[in-house]
Design brief:
single chain; alpha+beta; four-stranded antiparallel beta sheet
Length: 389
């Protein structure tokens, strides 16, 4: 035979009828409407904690022996009762705080398993344009002479240069001095040689390629670069286990970026200058030959003005000299402009602040480990209590 469970609403109704209490009076004591009390008794509406407390207060002899079976619901009629959640969590607050403290201690202790990291930073600033402004008069002169002065400035994305394989390869293949005076490379520092011991069956060449690729990838993970688009200020930060290595690598990267951009910026001007100089030498020789030919013609033909045929030959030779002279002068001007352009392009970056050896570690932050671990413990324990409820 199945035993029928008496609901809390049915118990309230039975208690009211036995004690001859009107619905209006009980509803007033419970601070609810008569219609709400009727829904309680019929089981249509769940009873929250405040109503139960008022019921206990006004009717102390009411039997709450089966109270656990009639505890208020967190979700009723698709609505979350945050008051119930609050009451449940407050009643178990000691357990929640204890578990949070245990998680915090465990997280704080686990922070000692991570290696200390030190962060160093170098800042670079674009070269000022006073030099460009000082050369404006030469460019104006060139325009007046009808020469082409098209702007040939090149722009570089500094973060891409910093994160390039070129710089990563140079950095990982160099030896660096540590704070205790030792010399080591990054592969040894990161113990990457031991990580490829499982590939001993492969050739040494393949092993070395694997190590290089791992070192380059890990190096880029330890380097960060940011650029202020408004001011142009560039910050390059490095994070390594040794503070001196972090500072030295940051300065090395800054120096390599300067050299690369300066080299690329001056390459085009140097190429143009070399080509113009070569053409100038050729045209100069041609001009000298043409002038010598004109001189010889005049010496051999003193009265060429009186002979139409000789005068025509003279005109042809003279035009040739004048044409070569114009080309020579133009090439001379172009060579001067190429020299000005080369000076204008260099340098493009200045070091604002060199990286210094950091005195304090940047990670792990043990306070954050403690705080986040405690929060995780509190959240998990709260969820467990609510699910169990």
């Amino acid at each position: 035979m199945e035993i029928k469970t008496v609901t809390l609403g049915q118990k309230i109704k039975r208690y009211r009828l036995i004690n001859d209490i009107r619905q209006e009076d009980m509803a007033e004591k419970m601070a609810v409407s008569r219609a709400t009390l009727i829904n309680y008794e019929k089981g249509h509406t769940s009873i929250n904690m405040d109503v139960l407390n008022r019921l206990k207060s006004h009717y102390p002899d009411f039997d709450f022996e089966e109270e656990e079976k009639f505890k208020p619901k967190i979700i009723s009629d698709n609505t979350i009762d945050f008051k119930v959640i609050y009451d449940v969590l407050v009643s178990k607050s000691k357990n929640i705080l204890l578990i949070g403290l245990l998680f915090g201690v465990a997280g704080f202790g686990s922070s000692y398993l991570f290696n200390k990291q030190y962060k160093a930073e170098i800042s670079l600033y674009p070269a000022k344009k006073e030099l460009n402004q000082g050369l404006a008069q030469f460019q104006s002169l060139a325009i007046n002479l009808g020469m082409n002065t098209t702007n040939k400035d090149q722009s570089f994305n500094i973060p891409d240069v910093v994160k390039s394989r070129l710089i990563a390869t140079k950095s990982t293949s160099r030896d660096w001095k540590t704070s205790d005076g030792r010399t080591t490379d990054l592969v040894t520092l990161w113990k990457l040689n031991k990580q490829v011991d499982f590939f001993k069956k492969k050739s040494n060449k393949i092993d070395s390629l694997v190590i290089i690729e791992k070192a380059i990838k890990k190096f880029n993970d330890h380097v960060n670069v940011s650029e202020d688009r408004l001011t142009g200020l560039i910050r390059i930060s490095t994070t390594f286990q040794d503070p001196k290595i972090a500072a030295n690598i940051a300065n090395f990267i800054g120096n390599q970026v300067e050299l690369y951009i300066q080299k690329e910026n001056s390459a085009q001007s140097t190429k143009e200058k070399k080509f113009i100089a070569e053409r100038l030498s050729v045209v100069k020789n041609e001009l000298e030959k043409a002038e010598l030919e004109l001189k010889n013609f005049k010496e051999r033909n003193r009265g060429y003005q009186d002979s139409p045929e000789l005068f025509m030959i003279f005109s042809q030779v003279f035009r040739e000299v004048e044409a070569k002279k114009e080309v020579y002068l133009t090439l001379q001007q172009q060579l001067e402009l190429a020299r000005i352009e080369e000076v204008k392009r260099s340098p493009i970056l200045h070091v604002l602040d060199n990286a210094v050896v950091p005195t304090k570690k940047s990670s792990p932050n043990r306070k954050l480990f403690l705080i986040f671990s405690s929060l995780i413990g509190i959240i998990l324990s709260s969820l467990r209590i609510l699910i169990k409820y």
